Amino acid sequence: MDLTVPEYAYMFGFLQADGHLSQQSRQRGRLTVEINARDVDLLRRFQKLTPYNSSITERTRSTNFAETHTSATWSLFSLEARTRLNELGLPYGRKSKTIAPPRTEFSCRDYLRGLIDADGSVGYTGKGFPFVSLTTASGAIGMHLSEHAKEVTGAERTLKRNARDGIYNLLYVGKAAQKLAVFLYYPGCLSLERKQTTAESIATWVPSPHKKPGPERIVWTAEKDKVLLSTSTVDDACAELGHSRNACRARLTKLLDGLVPLPA
Q1: Distances (CA, A) of 47 to 38, 74, 254, 261
Q2: Distance, CA of 230 to CA of 128 (rounded, Å)
Q3: Under a CB-based contact definition with an 8 Å cutoff, are residues 100 and 10 in contact?
Q4: pTM for the complete prediction?
Q5: Is 262 helix (H, G, I), strand (E, B) or coil?
Q6: Could you tell me the maximum CA-CA distance found in the chain, to the nearest angstrom?
Q7: For 181, how many CA atoms within 13 A lie in the half-sphere containing its CB?
Q8: Angle, vertex CA 120, rays to CA 203 and CA 103, nearest 5
Q9: 215 pLDDT higher than 70
């Protein structure tokens, strides 16, 4: 797993954000990655990149967000593979706050794209402005994105944890989002197909000369609330509604906590 190779750098970023490394007695353990079944092709690409036996399975279950949700899981048991991933910076067990960019040389934009595909969003706000965002509990990851995004876009972001859940929410809108999307999602790169398609659309976006991006103001309706509650993930709701991940997460929390009435 040479992280100077774009595909491996992307894969490692995705695994750090969305993978889980577990261990048991007698050196047993496994790496698992569970994603929406519609994105199973990405797991097949990971499987081809990995020179060890592994499996991909699917299951359908009910969740807090949907009565039926089908997911795909890639499982890798090789001790040698797990040891290598752990050495590169994928911890065993809970990892959201402790992950950090690899200390070895790596392809930066591919690594960042892997993080955003797993824990970020690429889309358009309700007012039609493109956005790229990343949600992370790791200060090291947040700092890494903000530093490189500043180099690419000129936009500076101050890291500050969300007071409610201690999460960093990094958001780039308008021209900054366009520059970042073009930098991250170049032609032929390994990525989630749906985010690659959105990024290609953002690359051709032309801002209106009379409008400037500002804070997103959303009028929530019963129909929008139903979409939030019925889609399997927040990212799916963002893609369908065209709102930022922060806005969708905040509204969903209010619905689930009973702070606003549920739609009929």
Answers
A1: 16, 8, 39, 44
A2: 24
A3: no
A4: 0.77
A5: coil
A6: 65
A7: 29
A8: 100
A9: no
How crowded is residue 260: how many other Cβ atoms within 10 Å of its Cβ? 13
Which residues are 132's β-sheet partners?
A: 122, 172
What's residue 234's pLDDT?
A: 82
d(C-alpha 227, C-alpha 256), whole Å: 14
The helix or strand, by DSSP H or E, that contains position 38, with its residue range, turns out to be: none
Place of tokens 């698992």: 32
189 and 181 in contact (C-beta within 8 Å)? no
Encode pLDDT of 158-199 as tens digits: 888 877 778 888 999 999 999 999 999 999 999 999 999 999
The DSSP call for residue 169 is E
Q: H-type helices in 154-221, by residue range?
A: 175-184, 193-203
> Cα–Cα distance between 84 and 118 in angstroms, integer?
21
**Cα distance between residue 33 and residue 56, in whole Å:** 9
**Can you tell me the distance from the alpha carbon of 181 to that of 168, in angstroms, rounded to the nearest whole number?**
20
At 83, phi and psi to the nearest 5?
A: -65, -40
pLDDT at 110 over 70: yes
pLDDT band, residue 217 (cuts 50/70/90): low
Q: What is the separation of C-alpha 238 from the centre of its chain, rounded to a whole number of angstroms?
A: 12
pLDDT of residue 106: 96
Spatial separation of the C-alpha atoms in residues 255 and 250, rounded to whole Å: 9
- Vertex 104 angle, CA 103 and 108, to 5°: 90
* Residues whose CB falls within 8 Å of the CB of residue 181, separated by 6 or more in sequence, listed in order: 122, 130, 132, 198, 199, 202, 203
CA 13 vs CA 36, 64, 216: distances in Å: 18, 27, 29
The closest of 142, 135, 124, 257 to 199, measured between CA atoms, is 124
